[in-house]
Design a protein that fits this description.
Blueprint (H helix, E strand, L loop, with lengths): L15 H23 L5 H20 L16 E3 L4 E4 L7 H7 L3 E6 L2 E6 L1 H7 L4 E4 H5 L6 H8 L5 E8 L7 E6 L8 H7 L4 E5 L2 E7 L9 E4 L5 E4 L10 H18 L1 H8 L5 H26 L13
Antiparallel strand pairs: 1-2, 2-5, 3-4, 6-7, 6-11, 7-9, 8-9, 10-11
Helix pairs in contact: 1-2, 2-3, 2-8, 2-10, 6-10, 8-9
């Protein structure tokens, strides 16, 4: 049923044999995830990277408008690790593979909050992906995650790229209009970024926040990067890769790939990081990321595989 809503309307989902393959991918993804949760940080990144890779196969086949079989997917990772700079590279003429297929599997993005629901159009972002080669560091990627915002600022001394976002019904009797309220009253993204993310929409400032008025009928024209945390709260992300809009699951794919490459190819340096022999800030930031990743990744996977929007209720410590 999931595939029937994302692929060619002339086809009726995927056959049972293909569904069985995806079920095995999900089973492997879960077992690797559990092994990563139980394992020490010395080997955790490798388990989590191959876990998110296994889950990605299913997300690609079930969401991509052009993919109907795992066997037709390119066998490479779809991005490149740059060891000298400790960065990842993707897009442009980089080899296609799991990451590029995962990114391309979301031509639209569903935003859902308190009864307000709309889709963003990511087609131009996908076109930009294949015409722009991009490099990304661990720090840049961590600064884009809602759960890392305060910790990132504390550990690095730099502000994160994440700002609280609330979407409310505006008082407009002529049409259904939503107000996108960006900021927490004390810190704001640059106005240039907001204008680029909401092209052609009215932008004002009120109570230390940017207020963007968006008619509901034009919500798909928004070019903003919007993530949600484990509780379902929305955040506006100051996008360093514009015009490419990376779904949050892609950020975690990239981070786990970089961390797993450091672990595999530089075990001595990785050991120094997790044993707090390089920088206590780096060690704490790394541990904090994996703690939050293990708490959130299954929610993200389910959000990207179904119509459900699972969240962690306030007071739930599991």
């Amino acid at each position: 049923m999931r595939k029937q809503t994302s692929g060619d309307s002339k086809k009726s989902g995927i056959p049972e044999a293909e569904a069985a393959k995806l079920k095995n991918c999900f089973g492997q993804g879960r077992e690797l995830y559990l092994a990563g949760c139980r394992g020490s940080l010395m080997v955790k990144p490798l388990n989590h990277f191959y876990s998110v890779t296994a889950y990605s196969y299913g997300m690609i086949v079930l969401n991509s408008p052009v993919r109907y079989s795992k066997d037709n997917l390119p066998s490479s990772h779809g991005m490149v690790y740059l060891p000298d700079a400790v960065q990842c590279q993707f897009g442009g003429d980089s080899p296609t593979g799991t990451f590029s297929e995962l990114f391309s599997s979301f031509p639209t993005d569903l935003i859902n909050l308190k009864g307000i629901e709309f889709h963003q159009d990511f087609r131009e972002s996908i076109k930009a992906f294949y015409s722009h080669r991009v490099k990304a560091s661990i720090g840049t990627l961590l600064s884009m995650l809602p759960e890392m915002a305060e910790y990132y600022a504390l550990m690095t001394g730099r502000r994160s790229r994440v700002f609280p976002l609330d979407v409310v019904n505006a008082n407009n009797p002529r049409m259904l209009t939503w107000e996108f309220q960006i900021g927490d009253g004390t810190s704001l993204p640059t106005r240039e970024v907001v204008e680029r993310s909401f092209p052609g929409f009215e932008i004002t400032e009120r109570f230390g926040k940017y207020i963007v008025s968006v008619p509901a009928t034009k919500a798909s024209e928004i070019d903003a990067l919007i993530y949600s945390d484990v509780r379902g709260r929305l955040y506006f992300v100051e996008n360093p890769f514009y015009p490419i809009l990376l779904p949050e699951i892609c950020i975690h794919f990239l981070l786990n790939h970089i961390y797993s490459c450091i672990m595999r190819y530089r075990p001595d340096e990785w050991g120094n990081v997790i044993l707090n022999e390089v920088s206590s800030d780096t060690s704490l930031l790394t541990r904090h990321y994996f703690s939050n990743y293990e708490r959130k990744i299954l929610l993200l996977v389910l959000r990207n595989l179904s119509k459900y929007m699972p969240i962690v209720e306030l007071g739930d410590t599991k």
